[in-house]
From TrEMBL:
Gene Ontology MF term list: metal ion binding; oxidoreductase activity, acting on paired donors, with incorporation or reduction of molecular oxygen
UniProt keyword Oxidoreductase, yes or no: yes
PROSITE patterns reported in the protein's UniProt record: FE2OG_OXY (PS51471)
Keyword Oxidoreductase in annotation: yes
Keyword vocabulary terms for this entry: Iron, Metal-binding, Oxidoreductase
Residues annotated as signal peptide: none
Similarity field: Belongs to the iron/ascorbate-dependent oxidoreductase family.
Domain Fe2OG dioxygenase: 187-287
Protein name per its UniProtKB record: Fe2OG dioxygenase domain-containing protein
Length: 338
């Protein structure tokens, strides 16, 4: 793709050929509305006041039916979230000014420009940064130090995400009737992956992220007030509503295994928009690398036999190339941090 050195790769009036997916891979029916919507769960539900502690049933039901839900009144301060979004926006704005193509991978984080992203021979309409987050004190200095507030702001965000994710996993634990604290020592907010999806001249030809499942226990996603995320439900792509007060939570493959497929890890993707820029922050709450993942014993019986064999998480990641082209880089980064 030819570009003017001063313009960014997406400032175009047409979609370059190497960004156009084949007919089968293109998003279809972008304008068709669907009747489903991903459940929005209020974590300060008044039920909590009458002794039920948390809206556990709602989370379980959403995890069984959709594999996705949104949480509001989640307790993460608005300022912490807004600061994280603005520092990431600054980061992406800086990257694209003078650089076209591949930026060398630095120790501790991976920045991928759009021209570097090739899926099935076609570029994705996004840029991305990924870095490990656990243990926080050991990772923080490996993250970008420009913008200057990046490390401080993102660390504050991750502390809150850790608290919220532990709370959600505790509720799932209660809902599945697992031993209290089941996830406590084996779940870590291990990886942050932030995506920048600029406006696209023709969203019917492109994709921000191809359909995929997450290799996590759960993933927490902040998407501001923007649309574009879609989840597969009964053979149709369903839009996840934009709610700037909510976090999107989805069940990853590891929790699907532990629950013996009671909870579903659902395929999702991101489509682009002609007018909107989408910035998202995905945080993957993963098992620790040595953790053995298998269906919880009490969810397996003669009527419901185990659907999975036990596997160490690090082997699962390796075998399934769970983080795509960057699996080895990410595994190395996680290993050197643990
Ligand atoms: O950027 C998004 O909204 C989706 C991100 C996602 O699905 C992922 O990183 O696994
Ligand atoms: Fe995902």
């Amino acid at each position: 793709m030819k570009e003017d050195k001063h313009s960014r790769w997406f400032e175009l009036e047409y979609v370059p050929e190497d960004y156009i997916f084949s007919k089968e891979d293109r998003p279809q029916n972008l304008d068709r509305s669907v009747c489903y919507s991903v459940p929005v769960i209020d974590l300060e539900n008044p039920k909590a006041a009458i002794g039920q502690s948390q809206p556990v049933e709602e989370i379980l039901k959403a995890s069984e039916e959709f594999g996705f839900f949104q949480v509001i009144n989640h307790g993460i301060p608005e300022k912490t979230v807004n600061d994280a979004m603005s520092v990431l926006k600054e980061f992406f704005d800086m990257q694209s000014k003078d650089t076209a193509g591949i930026i060398p991978h630095k120790k501790g984080y991976i920045y991928t420009s759009s021209t570097d992203f090739v899926k099935n021979g076609v570029h994705l309409w996004r840029e991305n940064i990924k870095h490990p987050c656990h243990p926080l004190e050991e990772c923080i200095h490996l993250w970008p130090d420009n913008p200057i507030r990046y490390q401080e702001v993102i660390a504050a965000y991750l502390v809150e995400i850790q608290k919220l994710s532990s709370r959600i996993l505790e509720m799932i634990c209660e809902g599945l009737e697992l031993k209290q604290g089941y996830f406590k020592d084996k779940s870590e907010v291990q990886l942050l992956s932030s995506n920048f999806y600029p406006p696209c001249p023709d969203p019917s030809l492109t994709l921000g992220i191809l359909p995929h499942h997450d290799p996590s226990f759960i993933t927490l996603l902040y998407q501001g007030g923007s649309t574009g995320l879609q989840v597969m439900k009964d053979g149709q792509w369903v839009n996840v509503g934009a709610n700037p007060n909510a976090f999107v939570v989805n069940i990853g493959n590891q929790l699907e295994i532990i629950s013996n497929r009671k909870l579903k890890s659902i395929e999702h993707r991101v489509v682009t928009s002609t007018h909107e820029t989408r910035l998202s922050i995905a945080t993957f709450v993963n098992p620790s690398p040595d953790c053995i993942i298998e269906p919880a014993k009490h969810l397996v019986n003669d009527l419901e036999p185990s659907l999975y064999t036990a596997s160490q998480y690090k082997d699962y990641v390796h075998r399934n190339n769970a983080f795509g082209d960057y699996t080895t880089a990410i595994q190395n980064a996680l290993r050197s941090e643990s």
